[in-house]
Amino acid sequence: MMTEMSTSTDPKIAEMAHLFRRAGFGAAPDQLDQALSAGYEATVERLVQAAASGPAESEPALPPLERPDYAAENARLRGLSEQERRQAVQERQKKEREEYQALHTWWLQRMSVTAVPLRERMTLIWHDHFATGFQKVKSAAFMYDQNELLRKKGMGSFPEMVQAAAKDPAMLIWLDSNSNRKGAPNENFARELMELFTLGIGNYTEDDVRQAARAFTGWTLNLQRGAFAFNAGQHDGDYKTVLGKSGNLSGEEVIDWVTTRPASSTFVAAKLFRQLAHTEPSTETLAGLARVYESGNRVIAPLVREILLSSEFRGDASRRSLVRQPADWVAVSARVLGLAANLDQVGIKGVKGKAAGVKVAGNQPLLAAMAGMGQTLFNPPNVGGWGQNSYWLTTAAAQVRLQTSQALALAADHPESLLEVKGAMPGSDASSPSAALLARLGAPDARAETVAALEAYRKSAGSSSEAVRGLVALALITPDVQVG
Amino acid sequence: MQPYSNSPPETSGPPLPSRRKVLKVAGAVGGAGLALGAGGFTVSRLLDWRHDEDPRISERQPLPVTTSPDAKDGGMVLVAVFLQGGNDGLNTVIPPDGKYKDFRPELSKETANPLPIDNGLALHPKLTRLKALYDEKRLAVVENVGYDKPNLSHFASTDIWMTCDPQGTTGSGWVGRWLDAVDWKGHDPLRALAVGFQVPRYMRGDKTSAAAVQGTSPSAIPLLEGPSGQAYSALAGIPDAYHQLSGVQGNARDLLAVRSSLAQHQTNGAPAAGGAAATPGAAGQLGPQLTDIAALIKAGLPTRVYGAVLGGFDTHAREEGTHADLMSEVDTAIGGLFDSLKGSPYADQVVVMTFSEFGRRAAENGSGGSDHGAGSVLFVAGTPVKGGIYGGTPDLKNLDSNGDIKAAVDFRQVYAEVTEKALGADANEVVGKGFAPVGFMG
Q: Which pLDDT band holds residue B185 (cuts at 50, 70, 90)?
């Protein structure tokens, strides 16, 4: 099978490039070089260790994010006249949007400059998993806090991460946990906890949802402190049965129980496999991964390591099997094209309106582009997160990717340096300037036909600055760079 | 939960048994005729494709004007509006039952002055345009729509409504199957259009998929011209593409076909799509979508099915206010669509249908909202529609074991009727066998 897929590239280079596309955002040529010297297994080990226990990063600087005393704010608003209140609300909303945009740009910049790419990759995976959206949460500070929580805990114990995520203010708002009252609980959090976060459909009943909902009553968000608070008066502490466990179960006990069910192991394994390897794992594969997860005490790092070292990940089945998410593609482009610093100025200009639930003004080109491609960070379309593969491949999105590709290429810093054949490939010169460009974009294993198409363009378009940027735009839009 | 996407995540969820397990990815707009495996080793051979010879853009026929609903192919245009999150049917069309207030002491306050129609039912106070359509006998209120053994998961129930398969083993959506059923060769890729970035599952078939259009006029893209355009075409046709390389290439071919087709319709003298005046009061997210759709219909695009979506219906908490805003948005947008179409030769061919993955529980919860339910109401509006009330009234004395409304009309009956009468296609193939029409298309 390998011969059908092989390019003229050395299979070891292809394999390593594949690893870096999945466990990060592509490798720069010198990183690829080092990794090849160290070998595949050692590289996986290094990547996993860095993500699990590397020091926190501070680049880029976090934009200022307001953390108001919401209780005081709301009280102040109530004291205003109708007109004043409307104005104050408008001002607050404007500030919220500006903060949202700044935070959105911040994370894309972080993905493009990070020295710990697997950690950012895992944070993105967990953001998709515990999908929570700014358009309801309405606080960039809360969204950032959740992001940091996922970053810090993303390679650690999964049950612990769920406990923390459940009480995270953004989540409390998103799934209405902040107003869950004894006697008539709302089922939102209890349902999504089981369906989407821990067990999956078919592994719990409607009765379990109803009983679990009772356990989460009394959970609330203290608006003054912007933190979880427990209102004992609203908590239903009575006898309940969830998935066969009975008692006066608290919310924490329910979470502990659901995250330690065997079905949860398979569920978590499946989620990570689909995000890292390919979207159709076999039952056997998942059973094996579930065993590793359980014997590793439900810690994520060993599971990730196991996936990355598996023959299924390294071989044909996973090769070129995941379409790059828009954030991934933009992060790679920003890094390689030297755009991180002014990233929020790159994108589709002149687009206004509400896109993906977020209001986009005409001067927010990057946000407009991401919305058009279907991925506004910190604002997934629903609690199920984003989809995969053909989810991204609509004609509307394809058009926006083209337009964004042009914009990225136009803004690139010294693009002609990307065509330099020396230093683009490990161990040898690249076969052509186009091959060099593709290699730097994370595809040293680009197909011969892809390189040929770009070379044909380069030869007919010449070497003007405009032609070089045209080549860069084309390279960004090749299937070999669109696919991870 | 606030706004949803049109389609549930394709491959998230439990491994096996998975609703998504057998999904064959439909990436081809208008039918490039190749099934793209979602994971397995599928290689496409495309030695002969050239954009300028793509048979999908050979047709240049605008939408025919027809006023005869009796024609085998009714020639109508269906505008499907997905109300995502689970629209609260009991607060959309208020039942006459005294138990309504018992179940909903708080939520019934919001519907205090509803707009009476017939049979004791009344529309939510904000649905003034729909009320006017009802008075003109152009609105069908279809009550108690759902399916047997309701599933209360957003994703599972959305899948069921979109694929018509409660077992969860079908990957294709019903409009997608309509696209598949018609011979794709030479058919305009614009036959079905989703407005916005996403193509929802109901518009994806096994072989073909609706196109997605954002905004109405294709802006010029320099990269698609000259030598770079040739390179783009070359990249879109690389043979032996595998896995998602094949998917991306198909996507590129589809984009080229859609752009060419849209451009065709503009050069045919049809008014430039996108030139329509904004629908008055078009706020939020649905108004702009229906504004675009009206413009595309007026431009004579051969599109027979348009898909729009409005999220935010998952009102577990603080439903009052939120639901009223949504009702207002839906009402204004649909009213605005018909306003925009006034005077167009196509005005009387348009049928608007709303749908949602489930209704909401009869009893409100303690958070001022309601949880996931089952049976609910949907609307079908337009000149070809025989206005009135179908499906009975909600029976609050006979709820199911979860405390939800039982379905009296299977949603597939609604689809079957629309498929036969509006699209002129075989409901057996598109929706499934044995779904008797409800009667709202006469």
A: low
What was the pLDDT predicted at B273? Answer: 35
Tell me the H-state helices in A79-226. Answer: 82-113, 117-129, 134-137, 140-153, 158-167, 169-174, 188-192, 206-215
Both structure tokens of B389:
């009330």
A36, A139 Cβ separation under 8 angstroms: no
Is the CB of B318 inside 8 Å of chain A's CB atoms? yes
Residue type, A3: T
**Rounded CA gap, B375 and B353, in Å?**
16
Show the CA angle centred on residue A348, arms to residues A347 and A352, nearest 5°: 125
The backbone torsions φ and ψ at residue A464, rounded to the nearest 5 degrees and listed phi first, read -65, 165
- For chain B, what is the mean pLDDT? 82
Q: For A10, phi and psi rounded to 5 degrees?
A: -55, 125
Grade residue B74 by pLDDT with cuts at 50, 70 and 90. low
Residues ≥6 apart with Cβ < 8 Å to B97: B393, B394, B396, B397
DSSP E strands, B100-191:
115-116, 122-123, 139-146
Q: Which of B104-118, B204-218, B291-305 has the highest mean pLDDT?
A: B104-118
The amino acid at residue B420 is: E
Which of A126, A139, A258, A393 to mutate against chain B (most B CBs within 10 Å)? A393
Average pLDDT of B203-220?
80
Q: Are B393 and B143 in contact (CB under 8 A)?
A: yes
User: Is the separation of the CB atoms in A23 and A52 below 8 Å?
Assistant: no
Chains A and B form CB pairs within 8 A to the count of 286
CB of A396 within 8 A of CB of B209? Answer: no
Partner residue opposite A187 with nearest CB, options B204, B211, B371: B371
Is B228 part of the contact surface with chain A (CB cutoff 8 Å)?
yes
Alpha-carbon gap, residue B186 to A119, rounded angstroms:
48
**Closest by alpha carbon to B82, among B286, B218, B339?**
B286
Pick B214 or B49 by higher pLDDT.
B214
Strand partners, B137: none
Q: Is the CB of residue A436 less than 8 Å from the CB of residue A418?
A: yes
pTM: 0.90
- B19 Cβ contact list (under 8 Å, min separation 6): A201, B13, B155, B156, B159, B168, B169
Instruction: Convert A323-358 into a string of H (helix), E (strand) and C (coil).
Output: ECCHHHHHHHHHHHHCCHHHHHHCCCCCCCEEECCE
Phi (first) and psi of residue B28, to 5 degrees: -100, 120
Please tell me the distance from the alpha carbon of residue B38 to that of residue B24, in angstroms, as a whole number: 6
Residue A280 carries which DSSP code?
-
Are the C-beta atoms of B86 and B375 separated by less than 8 Å? no
Answer whether A202 sits within 8 Å of B17, measured CB to CB: yes
Helix, strand, coil percent values for chain A (each to nearest 5): 60, 5, 35
**B281: alpha, beta or left? (left if phi > 0; alpha if psi -120 to 50):** left
Rounded to whole angstroms, the Cα distance separating A421 from B292 reads 48
The interface predicted TM-score of the complex, written ipTM, equals 0.95
Contact status, residue A229 vs residue A251, Cβ threshold 8 Å: no
Residues of B in contact with A480 (CB under 8 A): 245
* Across A155-183, average pLDDT: 92
What residue spans of A180-282 are helical by DSSP H?
188-192, 206-215, 251-259, 262-276
Q: Where are the alpha helices (DSSP H) in A296-427?
A: 300-309, 311-314, 326-337, 365-373, 395-411
Q: Is B1's CB within 8 Å of A174's CB?
A: yes
The alpha carbon dihedral of A149, A152, A154, A160 has a sign of negative
